[in-house]
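Reply to dn_fold:

You asked what the input looked like. This is it:
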Amino acid sequence: MRYIASTILTGRSDLRIATSSPNHRSPLSLKNLAARAEICVLCLFLAVVGCVGTKTIELSPATRAELDTILNTLQVRYDLTGSLKIIRMMVTIEEGEQSEELRELLWYKKSENGGELLHIQALGPINEPRGIAIANQDKNQFMLRLLNEQKAYLGPLSDGALQEIFGIDLRVSDVLSAIFANPFLDGRTDEFISVESSGAKFIIARPGIQEGHVETITLFIREEEPRVAEWHIHDENGTLQQRAAFSDYREVGGILRAHKVEIERPLDETRVVVKIAKVELNVEIKDSKFDVEPFLGEDIEIIPLSELE
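and this is what came back:
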């Protein structure tokens, strides 16, 4: 399994983007700042998933009821968020001994048709857009635009879209899980390996999608509000593949949200920390914010996702 997002996380400079078109074979190095910035933003929202073959247990009625209360509260926070606008977000990327800081913007909206709409921008030194990603479920469309490369990657929105571009596994639900600090938005809430509780602390282990991997999710209940604290993914050998931590919870418009997200991939020696300074919920965002056409001028080389290898 190859990973980053999501994210879910890689800032590695040895990745390449290449097309299979006979006339376009030049790889795109992530050492390019715009590409690197945008990749790290997208990779932040990736959540690695766990195993299929692990034996699950049947919870007692009391434990199931207690767990359902927690999961329902997390779901309500998502349901009550019709739109989300982050206009002050700092991202620190650590790769080995190297470190850099970026500023990014994010817009999210649930459309009237029930689709998920997402627009992410990575900014340069003077806050100019360097990379733009738009995911529009209503139009089944995904675009990655590298402004200083005069290139755009365009194609249908799918769980495998980013995998085609960057060679990483990413699902739409993984993006939402990171944005909302809720690993259960993918609907995997029925089968668990174990559920342990001690006072206000809950530790939940569950199988996921990749064979041989296990997810462990730690939550704390404070003032009757559940807070996802950590999300670990171990491989079949018990080696930690990825750790995601959510902290600095604050109420915004009556909805509790994490304002700090940290994602670490020890084997890649990569760590990303996102600090959100200003977020607005349920504000008006025009659908045009999620249109890709304004970024696809005549001078832009459009590379279909179907041509990527």
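Confidence is low (pLDDT under 50) at residues 1-53.
Hope that clears it up.
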